[in-house]
Amino acid sequence: MKKAKGRMDESILVCVYYGPNGERLIRRGAKIASMLDCPLYILTVDSLPYDELDAEKSAYIDRWKELAEECDVEEFVIRDNEKKPAVKVIAEVAREHHITQIIIGQTAKSRWEEITKGSFMNVLLREIPFVDFHVVSCDRAIKGLEGHFEKGVRAYIVEDEKGYHLLFTHTKQAKYEGIFFKETGTDFNNGVFKFMKHNKMVQVHITDDRVTEPTKIYPELKEETLK
């Protein structure tokens, strides 16, 4: 059971959607909640059922769950298989949890993006006029990285005598399934591979189809090489 927060007159909701800015929004919300000593909630919405989400979306949600634990979040609200408009969902969650402040990313490439535009914001303000809004701009460092990688594609890691290499077709030898983000401007398979291990997201670098950090897949390799 979570300990009671000092100030129950304030309550913060962070709205996140798939993309690199979600973690920054959560940390911003956690910082404000810590300053106010009040409850913090996270909300994400998807029109698909949770068990139909692809690996990339699932990885984002798993990372947000980790952050929720790290930041002592009161509740991580996942509204999957949702058919109502985003404004209705935000309003419902805000009322249910007595939210007084909402944090939204300005440049998220999702339904949240509409919120930064006048018409949608006006509707939202009419739905929940009792709430203060924080519209957070995307971090410039994140913006710069977005153009460095192509859209992620499903891939697999296979072990061989030299270590681990990348494949794009499933085989019985596949150790892990995940998403490969190829660097732009290269003819080779150089980039980043993200996958889940023990309910945590792991990221390894790929150079010419090969994993360059095998100890991230099996940390015990580091101990063995030191013996």
Quickly list its features.
2 domains, 11 strands, 6-stranded antiparallel β-sheet, disordered C terminus, 7 helices, Rossmann fold, alpha/beta, about 230 residues, elongated, single chain, 5-stranded parallel β-sheet
How would you characterize the overall build of this protein?
- The structure is a single chain.
- The protein has 227 residues and is α/β, with parallel strands linked by helices.
- It has two domains: 12-143, Rossmann fold; 153-226, no CATH class.
- 31% of the residues lie in helices and 28% in strands.
- The strands form two sheets. Strands 7-6-8-9-10-11 form a six-stranded antiparallel β-sheet.
- α1 runs parallel beside α2 and α3 runs parallel beside α4 (118-127).
- The protein is elongated and about 60 Å long.
Quantity of strands, as a count: 11
Strand fraction band?
Answer: 25-35%
Q: Helix coverage percent of residues?
A: 25-40%
**What is the CA-atom radius of gyration, in angstroms?**
20 Å
**N-to-C CA distance:** 44 Å
Protein name: K+-sensing histidine kinase KdpD
GO molecular function, one term: kinase activity
Pfam families: Usp (PF00582)
Keywords: Kinase, Transferase
